[in-house]
Specification:
Blueprint lengths: L2 H7 L5 H10 L3 H4 L4 H15 L1 H9 L7 H16 L5 H12 L4 H12 L13 H11 L1 H13 L3 H14 L3 H17 L3 H27 L1
InterPro entries: ARM_FBXO47 (IPR056622), FBXO47 (IPR038946)
Protein name: (spotted green pufferfish) hypothetical protein
Pfam family, one: ARM_FBXO47
């Protein structure tokens, strides 16, 4: 039964009653076609049922790794139930935003690490590839992505901002995401204080697009 058919067949039932069906098989099959408000109700229901928000708060208020079993439990539950099974990036983005929204920026970064970072560190971790960082920014979208890029821009890291934006463009899968990146470029440009900084930002973008295009052409020839 598709999510749309399920929604129509239970149209006369209150949303909260439908949630009991959802929890028994929380997947894209059931919630496909539901709008964001209904998904938010599903998320709220699951949080109340599993005490998820309190568990996340207990982990975020402790030093990293002190509660690593609880961190792993949160990671597995959120990834397997809420995030990984969605084939559509926009659906994963919706559920990830619901997870991140209640927390301040520092806690959001910590929660992202719990969800997608290594579960245990016994060596110094290697730096993430730029493609992975760009993919994470695209998945987060919204205010979190802007905050990260704006912070780098204000600290003079215009080359890094340009590099990330270009790789985000390469990972876009639809017009909505492309439009979002264009809007992000305008916001970063407007944030810069001087004409020299704005010019340098545009030049970095142009150079990075040229470099990436040349790399892609060389790879295709090989």
């Amino acid at each position: 039964m598709s999510g749309l058919l399920f929604k129509r067949s239970t149209f006369l039932l209150p949303t909260m009653e439908r949630l009991h069906f959802v929890f028994s098989k929380i997947s894209q099959t059931l919630t496909a076609g539901w709008d964001e408000m209904e998904c938010h109700k599903v998320f709220k229901f699951l949080c109340e049922l599993t005490n998820l928000q309190n568990k996340i708060e207990a982990v975020l208020t402790e030093r990293p790794w002190l509660k690593w079993p609880e961190e792993l439990q949160i990671r597995l539950y959120c990834r397997h139930v809420l995030l990984d099974h969605w084939p559509n990036r926009s659906d994963r983005q919706l559920w990830l935003n619901l997870l991140l929204r209640p927390w301040p920026l520092v806690s959001q970064a910590r929660l992202l690490f719990i969800l997608y970072g290594p579960s245990y560190l016994d060596v110094t971790p290697q730096e993430w590839h730029v493609e992975n960082v760009a993919g994470l920014l695209l998945l987060c979208e919204g205010s979190l992505c802007y905050t990260v890029l704006a912070s780098k821009a204000l600290n003079g890291q215009l080359f890094e901002v340009s590099r990330l934006l270009v790789h985000v463009v390469l990972m876009c899968q639809n017009e909505h995401q492309i439009s979002w990146v264009v809007k992000m470029v305008h916001q970063i440009y407007s944030l810069l204080r001087t004409a020299a900084e704005k010019l340098r930002f545009i030049q970095h973008l142009e150079n990075m697009f040229t470099l990436v295009t040349m790399d892609m052409m060389q790879f295709s020839v090989i």
